[in-house]
Design brief:
Blueprint (H helix, E strand, L loop, with lengths): L12 H12 L3 H9 L6 H8 L13 E9 L2 E8 L5 H13 L5 E4 L4 E9 L3 H17 L2 H9 L3 E9 L7 E9 L6 H22 L4 E8 L7 E9 L10 H17 L1 H21 L4 H12 L9 E6 L2 E9 L13 H9 L5 H23 L4 H16 L4 H10 L7 H12 L1
Antiparallel strand pairs: 1-2, 3-8, 4-6, 4-7, 5-6, 8-10, 9-10
The protein binds 3-hydroxy-3-methylglutaryl-coenzyme A.
Length: 432
């Protein structure tokens, strides 16, 4: 089953559903029912969601959970998390509770500037280009005034524009490399509008000053934001890390070793960082931010020294265990989805309507907490024990377990290890 179509975007929502069901879904009756059962009864709310993207056919649900007990810079938060993977919210909550009893998390925004570039080609003399840039630079900024006026009133705007010669890497390739402060907005639209105006002014005026033309290739923000940086950390005396099964020093040493492995071994670093992103993406998504931009920027940062490495670090010094993360995060608490999606508003309200800087700290802490919980499990019980305990309900749902079956099996696995096959065998036993 397959088909192509011209004018799909012009069809009504119900026509789009009928077309996709007819051409791509063999069990058309139940497929259509599955699609339509996710419609919201509130027409206005449904329309809002339909209009977030294009060619919408239904809503795609993700659960929104909350991880309580996060003490960050002595303030207590419950952190909203939107994610499909079991055990992530439990792990974050577990780490929050653990560190709440040991002084909580400390977080600090180190810098907040963002980058945008106008990429262009110029075949003439570089000295002439440099002179032209210095002459035109102030006009580049004044021509954007209609775009920047409000941002400037709030204290943000364009910080600087540089001319960068990239011809060693690519023939005739130059950039206008601009830095921006966008305060509580993620700033993508603001930055892109400024860049497009720079490009227009830069090209138009060039004819008056240069013998060779300027060919603009593109104008776009960068999602690599190494100067929009936040650091979060936890620390405590090594002996305070002890629990029922392991001494403080044995745990701390094993934990630091696990982090060291992720620092030098890319195969491990990717999984280690994936665990961090479990926490980061979930909060980024819940607060209506762009998790693809965050992912791209964070992973680029993980390879900043030329080799993919851990985003977190740990040490034991003078009997004190310290565990920290430093990551670039371009986030917004105004603009974009933040004012549109009702659940994003709720998520931001749960966090006490944070500024972008505060949200950067919260998100970094969620990543650090997630990594702490995963490494704590990995270096002690192994990951499967806790993860499978949380995953049990998914397996039971896969087998359409009844309420009674669930109760009985959950009781059984309080004293037995959860594995997929063990659960299946318990279900079969019950159903015989
Ligand atoms: P536990 O010690 O069995 O939990 O941990 P507990 O039953 O003793 O409860 C202690 C606290 O944990 C609770 O306190 C909660 O805060 C939390 P309370 O609420 O009772 O005051 N907690 C829960 N919160 C919500 N719902 C629950 C729940 N259960 C406990 N049902 C736990 C169990 C799963 C938390 C622990 O084993 C853990 O942290 N495991 C790590 C799980 C993890 O990292 N999951 C991520 C997915 S795996 C992955 O993708 C990443 C990975 O590959 C990354 C890497 O390799 O680095 C691992």
């Amino acid at each position: 089953m397959s088909a192509t179509i011209s004018g799909f975007s012009k069809l009504s929502k119900s026509e789009k559903i009928d077309w996709i069901v007819r051409h791509y879904l063999s069990n058309s009756k139940s497929a259509k029912q599955t699609i339509t059962q996710y419609f919201n009864a509130d027409q206005k709310l449904q329309q809002l969601h339909d209009e977030f993207i294009e060619n919408t056919i239904t809503n795609y649900y993700l659960p929104l959970g909350v991880a309580p007990n996060f003490v960050i810079n002595n303030k207590t938060y419950a952190i909203p998390m939107a994610i499909e993977e079991s055990s992530v919210v439990a792990a974050a909550s577990n780490a929050a509770k653990f560190w709440m009893q040991r002084g909580g998390f400390k977080a600090k925004v180190l810098s907040t500037t963002k980058i945008g570039q106008v990429h262009f080609v110029f075949t003439g003399n570089f000295e002439d280009l440099k002179q032209y840039f210095n002459t035109i630079k102030s006009k580049l900024i004044t021509d954007t005034k209609p775009i920047t006026a409000n941002m400037e009133k709030r204290g943000g705007g364009i910080i600087d524009i540089e001319l960068r010669d990239k011809t060693e890497d690519l023939e005739h390739y130059y950039q206008l490399h601009a830095t921006f402060e966008t305060l509580d907005a993620m700033g993508a639209n603001f930055i892109n509008s400024c860049l497009e105006q720079f490009a227009k002014t830069f090209k138009t005026e060039a004819d008056k000053y240069l013998s060779a033309p300027i060919e603009i290739v593109m104008s776009i923000l960068s999602n690599y934001v190494p100067n929009c940086l936040v650091r979060a950390e936890v620390s405590c005396k090594v002996e305070d890390l002890k629990d029922k099964t392991i001494s403080g020093i044995a745990f701390a040493e094993k934990f630091v070793r696990a982090v060291n492995i992720a620092e030098i071994e890319p195969y491990r670093a990717v999984t280690h960082n994936k665990g961090i992103m479990n926490g980061i993406d979930a909060v980024v998504l819940a607060t209506g931010n762009d998790f693809r931009a965050v992912e791209a920027g964070v992973h680029a940062y993980a390879v900043k020294n030329g080799k993919y490495s851990s985003l977190t670090h740990a040490k034991i010094e003078e009997g004190v265990f310290t565990f920290w993360i430093e990551i670039p995060l371009a986030l917004g608490t105004v603009g974009g989805l933040t004012g549109l999606h009702p659940l994003v508003k709720v998520a931001l309200d749960i966090l006490g309507k944070p500024s972008a800087k505060e949200l950067m700290q919260i998100v970094a802490v969620a990543g650090l907490a997630q990594n702490f919980a995963a490494l704590r499990s990995l270096t002690t019980t192994g990951i499967q024990e806790g993860h499978m305990k949380m995953h049990l309900m998914n397996i039971l749902n896969q087998f359409n377990a009844t309420h009674e079956e669930k109760e009985e099996i959950i009781q059984h696995f309080k004293t037995h290890t959860v594995t997929h096959s063990a659960v299946v065998s318990e279900i079969e036993k019950l159903r015989q």
